[in-house]
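STRUCTURE REQUEST FORM
Protein name: GDSL esterase/lipase At3g27950-like isoform X1
Source organism: Cucurbita maxima
Requested output: structure tokens
Priority: standard
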Amino acid sequence: MDPLKLRRVLVLLFLGLVGWPMTSVSAAAGGGGDSASCRFPAVYNFGDSNSDKGGIPAAFDAIQSPNGMTFFGHPSGRACDGHLIIDFMAEKLKVPYLSAYLDSVGTSFRYGANFATGGSSIRPGGYSPFHLAVQVSQFIQFKSRTTYLYNILHSPNSTAIPMESSIARPREFSKALYIFDIAQNDLFHGFHYSFEEQVRASIPDMINTFSEAVQQLYKEGARYFWVHNTGPIGCLPYSILYNKSPDNRDSNGCVESQNEVSREFNRQLKSRLLKLGKKLPLARIIHIDMYSAKYLLISKAKTQGFVKNPVKFCCGSYYGYHIDCGKREVVNGTVYGNPCKDPSRHISWDGIHYSEAANLWIANHILNGSFSDPPLPIDKACQAPRYA
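Status: completed
Returned output:
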């Protein structure tokens, strides 16, 4: 392609005046343009507390100190001492940190929105009322109201143009990246309130429900999907502490039977994503093996600068009973619940959620495409092949 024409196409793409080409940006450059990024204009995230940045505090109770102690210096709506993986994803994509959809204070949705909320699951009936179908419904309402407001602001008689700086652009919904990180609570809740075989038997319904959510978003114009599978739930400190049987342990001390159920969910998820790629002709779907990335960190903890014991976590306590992070108890004159002095040495922040240091390690390993199928970094996700 003539350099001047190519430059004009890229400028138009950046300004949002034309849609993404049917081929990748690198293909438009005549091949070999591996350095070209997708420049997603917006990001929409669906998930649980692994990527919730303020949904639960906005809807219910505030997340208490010492959450946020490492980076923000105060609670930031995240169940973590600092950044979540979704924050590092935003940095890689060169968009601002996403605002929680439910948060009404200081929010901007110009570059996307975060529908994730702590405790959320794919199916209803878990820890949170904001299961995946609700999050998708919120997005559909968000898209409809945004489009309406944007059109009002651009009507001839409008005088409220300054509001435009904080709302999404309707033309960018089909160019945005749609991220999913959800399923942990479906399994974790099942392990605690039913039997593992019942959880395993529920996986097909979880996969069907997830598939329906993706197809709904596709009907709304979503085209680019970045999907995390679920992590090794049997390696969460609370999973280990609540399961005492030494016969049900792997080489890293994790609960093997729970990890096997996690892997079975992941096998079925990957199979369904392949089918969805063939069913949805314009979709570009990338599957991220979060399980393998997290398990690799756990297995190499000591050599990566973390404490070796996977049961140890920084915030909260467990002494026959557990004290949630942010709370304190005095037992026989001893105060329990204070955070550790150096969260960066711990993979687990509070027994359920990963520390900022662990999140950064994981982000560095997944965002470059090392755990992606197809093997593309997140800023080139638009180049994923179509399966149809």
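Reviewer notes: Strands lie at 43-47, 112-114, 177-181, 224-228, 284-288, 317-318, 322-323, 329-331, 334-336, 372-373. The domain at 43-304+355-383 is CATH 3.40.50 (Rossmann fold).
Form closed.
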